[in-house]
Structure formats: structure tokens, C-alpha cells
Amino acid sequence: MRMYRPRAFPTCAARYRASARYAWTSLAMSITKNGRIIAQGGDLNVSAANLYSQGGVLSSLQGLFTANVTGVLKNGYDANRQGGVIQAQRLNLTALSIFDNYGGRVSARTGEALINTASFDNRNGGLYAKGLVRVTGGNFDNSGDNDGQIAGGQVELNLSGALNNRFGIIESDSTLAVTAQSLDNQTGQLRALGGGGATNFQIGNLFDNRNGTLESANSDLILNAGSFLNGGGSLLHTGNGTFDISTANLTNAGGSIVTRGGLTLTADSWTNSSVIQAGRLTVNVGTLNQTAGGQLLASSLFSGSGSNWTNDGLIASDGDVSVNLGAYRGSGRISSVGALGLSAAQIDLNAATAITAGSRGTVTSSSSLTNLGRLTAMGDLTVNAASLINQGTLGSTGNLRINADSLSNQNGLLFSGGDMALRVGNFTNRFADVYSLGNLSIARDDNNGWSSSINNVSATIESGGDISLAANYLENRKDVFEASGGLISGAIGVQCYGCTILRNRAEASHLVWVENYSSTITQDSASSSITAGRNLIGSGGEFINNASTISAVNDLTLNLQSFTNKGATAGDYTVRRSMDAPKDLRSWRAIMDYNASNDPLYGSVPQNPYRSTPGMHFWTADGQESVVSVGASGGGGEATRYFKFATIWIENFTNPDYAFTKAHYGDGSHVEAPDAIKNANFFENVIITNSPSTSANAVVQAGGAVRINAAQNLTNSVVREGITLGAGASRVGVTQLSGSAAPTVVSINSQLPPDLAQQQVNPLSLPGFSLPTGQNGLFRLSGQGGTAAAVTQPVGLPQSWTMGSAAVSVTQREQTVSDAQASTIQIGSVGQISNATRQLASVTRQSAGVSANASAFDTRAPGAAAIGGLVLPGHTSDSAGVTSVDSVTGIATGNQGSGALLPVQVAACPECRLDIGSSDYHCDFFR
Questions:
Q1: Where are the alpha helices (DSSP H) in 252-357?
Q2: Are residues 499 and 643 in the same domain?
Q3: Average pLDDT for residues 807-824, to the nearest whole number?
Q4: Does residue 737 fall inside a structural domain?
Q5: Which InterPro entries does the UniProt record give (predicted)?
Q6: Domain residues for 33?
Q7: What does each C-alpha distance from 227 to 181, 203, 242, 863 come to in angstroms?
Q8: Phi and psi angles of residue 676, each rounded to the nearest 5 degrees, phi first
Q9: What is the pLDDT of residues 177-200, one digit of tens each?
Q10: Is residue 785 classed exposed, middle or buried when 0-12, 13-18 and 19+ CB atoms within 10 A define those classes?
Q11: 765 pLDDT band (50/70/90 cuts)?
């Protein structure tokens, strides 16, 4: 076929089909009104200054389409908003000025699409290839109200200017490489679906991905840009290789950033409010401030280092977590599915903070650790600190070990599902709970060295196994116990040893000192308890059990220097002490002075009209009490007299006239007992309760043997009759005693009625019990209300690693070309050639018959069906992510022949001639 170069710009609209290699050279070419140039069996080459194919078709069905345009190539919308189509097996297109594909389609069916242009306008257009899509040029606009599309087996954009992908999509079935001065992907999509290779962005200035999507399944992702904005956007890298991005770009990006590969961030300071997720995430930041919305997530390992970190967001790993810092604080969370290690000079966890290890946990502070939140491990947990203050929850499902010089558990909870070892210098457990399902040991070291002190103050220490305590000083007491009131009255009287009535003679007798008290409790707190599920062993210096309980299910053994078991009581009670009587009158006068001030019955006896007659309490041997008069007896004619103090008579040799102090109990000026009375050796010292009273007993009990070995002193300071046990109820659990208790020091009365099994017990009514008021402890009230709604996926979870399939859907890519009717052709006097309805779409067409002397031509494309059409090129992706591009099918008729049918609309170009039966087509526009 020969083509002659036209001498001027052709204005004819035509459709051309050639079966051989087709070449066209012109100064300018215009294919209007849906014209078509189709090379059926060979390549198609077009060279022109400008090429206008709006709404038209340029295609090589079996070969390469090459276009060399020194000016403008237009393949976009025509006046009817019908886009043009350029399609071939392979494409090599050059438009040195502008490639206008606004609304058009450019597709390489089996091979590459190579584009070279200064400016490519692909708004609402499509650029597709089975193989490589490579665009080399200046600017590329892939935006549009219906989005521009670029899709291929591999995509390379080498631009010296700007790439605009707003609302657009650029998708590669393998790797994606973009080089540009700037990239605007706001609300756009950049996707690389291949499993190997690298996604490579080399952006000179701004890469704007705000509200956009960047997804890569390639092994590596390289993002090199002058600056990167990702606010509201999403970056997802599912490859296992390296995510290469500068720390400055990442730390200022915002949005969601997820990589399954390795990501390292290094900076002096960083404030993070975005979501960053990596397979292996390493954060080396000196000063990190993570806001409540910030998340640093890793699928296999999170590693962090720096000086000062404040975390109000989330640091989490599906694998291990390792963090080494100077200081850590904040109200955020650190969690791991695997092991967790946190080391810092100072650690401050507030009430909202949670640190959770999915398996083993190790937390170390070289200075102080303050926990107001939750520090837990699903496996074993080890906490090391110089000073540890726990006002929250600290515990483990496995073993718990705490190494600290000073440990304070204030309104908090220490718990372990296994054994608990507290290796401390000083331990204070105040209004708090220590609970171990296994054994519990509190000592300075593993050799059971003595701690300086163990203080259990209105708190609970309990274990399901053995308890071992070793300290120089141990106390188990109430935090506060104060009572108001005091001495009401007192009297010193006489009790005979063997008499039944008072007779007028001296009999063997002794003194009895009685003091009556009345008190009410003004301040009180819960009793403490130390309870062992098996054996309890204590060793050390001094152990004080003050109004609290020490108990064990099996044996209880205390080896101490001194042990004090001290209870307390409030109400009306009497202290009665017995001692030997003095034999001198001076001591008796001091006794009578005491009685005159403190005994309301001192002046209750009949009075002598000449002198004061005092009264004195007298008890018979069996305890019958009365008040008798103190009198005197003369010695006959002698001057000797006797002062009669009931059954004790004292001789008076010096003063025949006797007189005692008058009663003055009512004036409130009490006189202390004489020193001889206060310092006497009492052979009886009891407390008698006169009315129901409140007591706080000091109890030591065991289901087995109780052994208390005090080398220096053992004191049990309160013995009472009929006093109900008031030990506080355990706030942690109930330890059932096996067998009946056999207390050594204090006799315990039953607190509950015998028909307990048939009665409801209200723990609020038990003495020493109080509901927890803090946010931490074994029982913690949830502030989240329950609903009947179905369970839904929590908001804010880490993004999925899964990428979707090809985003350019079939309906977006495959749009049919509208119908185009063939023109009526007049050839001399030959009869009229009838119309043939031609459509380049997948619908049935009518055959075109040519009458008179016209020859018949076979216009079917090789391999085309009898019914064919031209379908707009589109990009589809099979299950493996491989691009497939639809074919351009030919115009089929029922006639057979060997030529090429080139129906020409000649109304606008009468100079065009068609030599039927020949192989040449030539058009002389100016003869």
C-alpha cells in the first residue's frame, strides 16, 4: 500500500482499514466524527506535526502502534463528549508538546505502553497495558471528576514536573516507580499489587497524600520526598522488606502509616498524633510526645530507645516489646502479645496508664517507679526499682517478683497467680491487698535475710499457699483507733480471804483497787489480716499484732525476739487489781484521800455528828460487795486505838484523835492513786465489762499448731470476758480453716450464729469491712455501661495487613463506543451501494452488500468472530493480579476477498478516489 503525503490539512472524516503495514505521514492529521484507522494484520505508524483523534479510533490489531507527533496529540472528548481510543498489542507514542487524553482510552493489549510527552492530560481518561506502562515527560494530570486511571503489569512514571492524581488511580500488578517534582494524591490511589520488588517514589518537593491512599504489596517501599503530608490519608505496605522513609517525613506526616516490613525512626524529638504500623518498628527518639490519638504498632517487634518519653497513646506489638529510656510517663498504654521489657531511670504511670505483657514482663527503674494504673503480665513479671510506689494494680498470672529497697502498696493491689517473692528493704501495705495463689515470701533476699520492716496497716496479706515473713520489725495493726472518755470513778477497798460476813474483828485480808472506765470510739479503721492458706512462718526481731488477725490453715510458727499481741476495747468496763495491804497508818490515810476524791460512795455511810465518817468498799471472800464505815476502837483504859478499815485494823500510837478527808468526788478534782498502790505487785489484774462494748481483738490462730517463740518478751495485753470477736473480714478472699482452732494467746468466741447456713450474711455489717473506694484493687468497678446491642468491632484497632484486589473495576474500564453509521458511497454510474450498519461494540451487525461492478471484501480481523465489535480498552486483574486488556475487534461482513475496505465519506472531499480492486489508496487534496 502506498500513502501519499497530503499537501494540506485534510478535513475529511474517514474510516480506514488496512491488512498490511500501514504508514501515514502528514503535516497535520484530523480524524473527526468518530473516524477510525485500524491496522488489521501489521503495525501502524503515524508521523505528524499534530494528531487529532477526539472520539476516534487508532488501532493495530496484531502489532505495534507507533506515533511520532512533534506537536499535539489529542485523543480526548469530541463535541459529543465521546472519548477517543488508541489501542494496539504494543504502543510507542511520542507527542513532544501535549498528549491530550482527556476522557480518552490508551491501551496496550499484550505488551508495553511507552509514552513520551511534555505534558500528559489523562483527566477522566485511561492508560492501560498488559506489560509495562512507562511515561517519560514533564507534567502528568491523572485527575478528573470521574478520575483518571493508569493500570498495567508494571508502571513507571518518569516526570520532570508535577504528577496530579487527585481522585485518580495509578495501579500496577507488579512494581510501581514514580519520579516527579511533586505528587498530589489527595483523595487519589497509588497501588502496587506485586509480591516482590520495590515501590519507589522519588519526589523532589511535596508528596501530598492527605485523604489519599498509598498501598504496596512489594517487598520494599521507598518514599523519598522533600516533604510528605498524610493527614487523613492511609499508607499501607504489606511487604516484608524495608520501608525506607526519612524520619522527618514520617514524623510530620499524620494519618495512618502501616508497613509489614522494617521501619526505623530516628530523631531528637517527635510529637506523634498519627497511626504508624510496621512489622518491625524501631523508634530511636530522644524526646517523644505521643498524643492520645497516636499509635506505634508492630506485628513482630517494637524496639524503642530515647531519653524522655511521654505516651498518652498506644504502643503495641503482636510480638515482643523492648524499650530503654531515661524517663517514661503518660496516660497511654504499652502492650505486647509476646515478652515485654521496659527499662528507664524513672517511670511514672498515672491512673489511666496500662502496661501489659502477653507473656513474660520485666520492668526496671534505676530510681523510682510510681504506678497509679495497671502493670500486669500474662506470664511471669519481674519489677526492679530503687523505690516502688504502687497505688494501682501490679500483678501477674504467673510468678511475681519485686526487687526494691522501698516498696509501698497504698490503696493498691499486688497479686500473682503463681508464687510471689517480695525482696525489699522496707515494705508498707496500707489500705491495700497482697494476694498470691501460690506461696508468698517477704524478705530482703532469697536467703531469707531480714528486711528492715514489714508494715501491714489496715490491709490484707493473703496466700493460697505458705507465707514466709522475715524482718527486723513487723507490725499488723489498724491504721487509726482512737476512743474518747476515760476514768469515771475509782476506789481502793478491802477483801477478806475467808470471811462470809463482816465481823467486828480483824481478819486476813488484802487490798482491791477498782477503776471504772467509760469510752466511745471516735476514730477507727479496718483491722489488718495476715492469712496463709497452708503454713505461716515468721522470723525477725519485734512483731506487734495490734487489734488485728494472724492466721494459718495449717501450722503457725513465729521465731522472734519479742511478740506483742494487743487488743483494744471501748464501752463501760472495770479494771480490778488485787495486792497486799500496807500496815502503816500513813499509807492508809493516802488511800482514804484517793477514795475521797474518786469514790462517789465515799460519803454514803451514816455520819458521826462530831467528825467525818468515810465509807469503804468491802468484799467477802465470795465477792459480795458492800460499803462499810471506817471507824476507830479504843484500847480499854489505855490510849491505844485501832483504825478499823473493814477487816484490816491498824494500830494508832501517836494520834488519839482521828479525822479523814471529807468527800469531794463531785468537784471533779480527781487524785491519783498513791505510788505504793500504783507500783504494787498485783496478784490479780482483770478487766470486767459492765455493758456491751466494741472491741478490736488481737487474734493469732491456726488450724494446726501455734508456736510463738519470743526470746525476750511475749505480751498479751488484753484479757476479757464475754467480748465478741471483732476481727475485720478479709477483702481478698476466704481461707477455710481445717479443723477447730486452738489459740494459744486469746480465747475466741464464735462470731456467727450456729444456723449460719440458713441465714444471709451481709458483709457490710461485719466489723472492719469496707467497700473499695479507689480505681484499683482486686475488685474494680467498670465505668462502662452495658448495652443489649450486638458486639461490634472496636473502633481504632490496627489496620489489616490485607490489600484488596485491583481497584479499577471492570465497569470502569470497559465502556462501549456508541454506534457509528457508514456513509453512502457513489462510484460513477455504478448502482447504489447499500448501507451497512457498523458498530464497534459487542452487538450483531448487518452485512454490507455492494451491487453492480463493485468487488466484495473480507473485512474481518484475524481470529475475530463473525459477530464482533470494538470495545473500549480497559484494565482488569485476574485472581493473580495480572492485567488483561480487551481486544479491538474488526468490522465483519459476510463477503470474502483479499483487499482492504476503506469506506470513505466523500461528501466533504470530492477529490478522494477509491480504486476498487487495487492495493493502493491515495488522496490528492489539491490536484
A1: none
A2: yes
A3: 44
A4: no
A5: CdiA_FHA1_rpt, Filamentous_hemagglutn_rpt
A6: 1-90+806-927
A7: 11, 9, 20, 52
A8: -65, -30
A9: 999 999 999 999 999 999 999 999
A10: exposed
A11: low
